[in-house]
Amino acid sequence: MKTRTFLARSLMAATACLAFGGASAGPVAWTDWTSLSTDLKTAQGSMGGVNVTVSAANAMNGVSQLVGPGAGCRNTGGGYWTEPNVNDRPYTGGTISNGPTECEQIGMASANSLTVTFSSAVDVLYMALLSVGQPGVSVVYDFNTAFTIDSEGQGYWGNDVTDGVTGANDTIVMKEFHGVLRFAAPVTSFTVTTGAENWQAFTFGMTVPEPGSLALVGAALLSAGALSRRRKAA
């Protein structure tokens, strides 16, 4: 009984170490968008081995990586996910060490209602947003699940002016927002309604364990196993 209790505690400690490591800046696997339906209402991609599907009530007819005038990268060498001010980083100013993959985004040019589903639960999910709202034009995103603002700053079209998160931490009012929202609870799906403006875009990312974190957990488990064998031998 003591051995089983010790092993359980060791496993819990190792898991806590991994969780703690994930709370600091770490790598994120961003979505590789691979298809957009002909009616522009369904987008699909892959994110760190997890399939991502976005179903929209209205056409996602803004310029995106996959469709629209000038689809793909802007002719800037880095796409839309740029951080022109190192002191005001919209995508790597929080818990993320790498911004969204260049040229990977889904655009919108009208109000919409999105349902996003993942093939398996995502423990820590990020939603990167690009140019949501305009100075003098507020755009509201209303989610059915809580989130926090992980980072925001100066992006491709300038600085954000965010009126903040309102309601039960599931609604955000934005005026030229460039930044990242973080969903900490395991997510398998969520819905969001979005406001209208000229153009806005999004993508999703998930945390991936760093090799050092995995090694730390492995070492903890090996140590626990070795100690268990010594106790049995005694």
Between the first and last Cα atoms, what is the distance in angstroms? 15 Å
Shape: globular
**Beta-strand segment tally:** 14
- How many individual domains? 2
- Overall structural class, as computed from helix and strand content, comes to alpha+beta
Strand order of the largest sheet: 2-3-4-6-13-8-11-10
What does this structure look like?
The protein is α+β, with helices and mostly antiparallel strands and 234 residues long. It has two domains: 1-26 and 210-234; 33-208, no CATH class. The chain has helices spanning 2-23, 211-233; strands spanning 28-30, 32-36, 42-47, 50-56, 106-108, 112-122, 125-132, 139-143, 148-152, 161-166, 171-175, 177-183, 187-194, 200-207. An eight-stranded antiparallel beta sheet has the order 2-3-4-6-13-8-11-10, with no helix packed on it. Strands 1, 5, 7, 9, 12 and 14 form a six-stranded antiparallel beta sheet that branches. A hairpin with a 2-residue loop joins strand 3 and strand 4 (50-56). Helix 1 runs antiparallel to helix 2 (211-233). The longest helix has 23 residues, at 211-233. The chain is globular and about 40 Å long. The two termini are 15 Å apart. Residues 2-24 and 213-228 have low confidence and may be disordered.
Task: Indicate the topology.
Blueprint lengths: L1 H22 L4 E3 L1 E5 L5 E6 L2 E7 L49 E3 L3 E11 L2 E8 L6 E5 L4 E5 L8 E6 L4 E5 L1 E7 L3 E8 L5 E8 L3 H23 L1
Antiparallel strand pairs: 1-14, 2-3, 3-4, 4-6, 5-14, 6-13, 7-12, 7-14, 8-11, 8-13, 9-12, 10-11
